[in-house]
Write a structure and sequence with these properties.
With 196 residues, the protein is an alpha+beta fold. It has two domains: 60 residues; 117 residues, Alpha-Beta Plaits (2-Layer Sandwich), CATH 3.30.70.60. Helix content is 46%, strand content 22%. It has four helices and four strands. Strands 1-2-4-3 form a four-stranded antiparallel β-sheet, with helices on one face.
């Protein structure tokens, strides 16, 4: 074997060892590093998504007291019974010197308009009673100093804290000598109740 052949074989062996080292040692570590980098990027994206969700939930939670207050107000509008105190309170503070003469509740609904529209039908025997809207008819008589105040009085009654649907209003003017006009308001107060 000549010296050139030995040198060539030595060079080929050195290249083979170098390639084997690259294939067996370096490339697997490069793949591992690449996978680790991808996993790290994926975890970072997931963390960012979770942080955004947490921030959104925190913002929603900050609105919770206002929503609870709004729900409480709505529950007062549609209570579990007639509870006409709120309506009486509004009717006792009417504009233009109007004075509440009387307020008369009727019987809660039988399903006919003006006397319980919105009530649920009675379930058949064996069925559970369901909770639904009921309405209590109510008639109010208000004394007005001027007939022109009637519209303001009706608006005040509608805007009160208790949900009131006005079905009919009748205005009877007073006598020509400055007598008191009378406004009769017929409507319905809504409540939640169980049927059956």
């Amino acid at each position: 074997m000549t010296k050139q052949t030995i040198t060539l074989l030595g060079a080929v062996l050195a290249v083979a060892v170098l390639l084997a080292g690259i294939l067996l040692g370096v490339l697997p570590r490069l793949d591992q590093a690449s996978q680790s980098r991808q996993e790290r990027d994926s975890v970072a994206i997931q963390n960012n998504t979770q942080q955004a969700l947490i921030a959104a939930y925190a913002q929603q939670r900050s609105k919770l007291p206002a929503l609870q207050s709004e729900v409480a107000d709505l529950k007062q509008q549609i209570a579990s019974g007639p509870h006409l105190e709120q309506l009486i309170d509004v009717a006792s503070r009417l504009p233009g010197g109007a004075v509440l003469v009387s307020i008369t509740p009727g019987e809660s609904g039988d399903g006919t308009p003006g006397a319980g529209a919105g009530t649920q039908p009675t379930p058949a025997s064996g069925q559970a009673a369901t909770t639904g809207f009921q309405s209590v008819p109510v008639t109010m008589v208000v004394a007005l100093g001027r007939s022109a105040d009637a519209a303001q009085v009706l608006q005040k009654l509608r805007a009160g804290p208790r949900l009131l649907a006005i079905d009919h209003a009748t205005l009877e003017p007073g006598a020509a000598q400055g007598g008191v006009a009378t406004l009769t308001v017929e409507g319905r107060v809504f409540m939640m109740g169980a049927t059956g």
